[in-house]
Write a structure and sequence with these properties.
An eight-stranded mixed sheet has the order 4-3-2-1-5-8-7-6, with helices on both faces. It is an alpha+beta fold. A hairpin with a 3-residue loop joins β7 and β8 (158-163). It is globular and about 50 Å long. It is 41% helix and 16% strand. The protein has a single domain (4-216), classed as Class II aldolase/adducin N-terminal domain (L-fuculose-1-phosphate Aldolase, 3-Layer(aba) Sandwich). The protein has six helices and eight strands; from the N terminus they run αββββαβαβαββαα.
Length: 219
């Protein structure tokens, strides 16, 4: 089975995403890119996460063409593949529908720097206005909107998190949801005090070192 390790990890993180209520039903998707094989392991469309097995995970090329797997890849496969084509620092993508972050997305509101941990996303998290998500034009819009950061709110839809490893990308998804909760709660009782670049200098450096170490593994 090709990309056995990546497929096992996609299953593990899909099930973790489901158990932690970062998505609902069979929505959301996860992929991992192997830069030595030039192949992507991506979750299949419409499969119950609790029942998913490694062989259900689909292997595709960087152009989204299926290489191995009986099921169909996520309908948002173009979004994943474009990252791997154009962002050499991205080796995993996690797409969630977590509650508070998606609530901000439904307001088309960005998530500002309310907590130091949000530095993992590379800065405040912008919101892309709603677009149909199963198209190449949507994938291109996501890539352009996220710029060099690692998270993006998808208007009236959900959250996109990326990273130099599946561990990093998943952490970004978790921290975006945590900070979205903080922002929604604090905004309900007052005006949140936001953080400056100076405040975040140390955390930015820490996460930059972590991303560098992730990428060194593939050299």
């Amino acid at each position: 089975m090709r990309l056995h390790d990546e497929r096992e990890r996609v299953v593990a993180y899909c099930q973790r995403m489901d158990q932690q209520h970062l998505t609902v039903g069979t929505s959301g998707n996860i992929s991992i890119y192997n830069p030595k094989e030039f192949l992507v392991a991506i979750s299949p469309t419409g499969v119950d996460y609790s029942m998913m097995k490694a062989q259900d995970v689909v292997v595709v090329t960087l152009e989204g063409k299926k290489v191995e797997g009986e099921l169909q890849p996520s309908s948002e496969v173009d979004m994943h593949c474009l990252f791997y084509q154009h962002r050499p620092d991205v080796l995993a993508v996690v797409h969630t529908h977590s509650l508070y972050a998606t609530a901000l997305a439904c307001l088309n509101q960005h998530l500002p720097m309310i907590h130091p941990i949000l530095a993992c996303a590379g800065g405040e998290v912008q919101c892309l206005p709603f677009l149909p998500s199963h198209t190449k034009s949507f994938a291109q819009a996501v890539l352009e909107a996220i710029e060099s950061r690692y998270a993006l709110l998808l208007g009236n839809h959900g959250v996109l998190a990326a990273g130099t490893s599946i561990e990093y990308a998943y952490q970004v998804a978790e921290m975006v949801e945590f900070c979205a909760q903080l922002y929604c709660i604090s905004s309900s009782v007052g005006k949140p005090i936001l953080m400056s670049e100076y405040d975040l200098e140390d955390m930015n450096q820490r996460f930059s070192r972590k991303r560098t170490l992730d990428l060194v593994r593939w050299e």
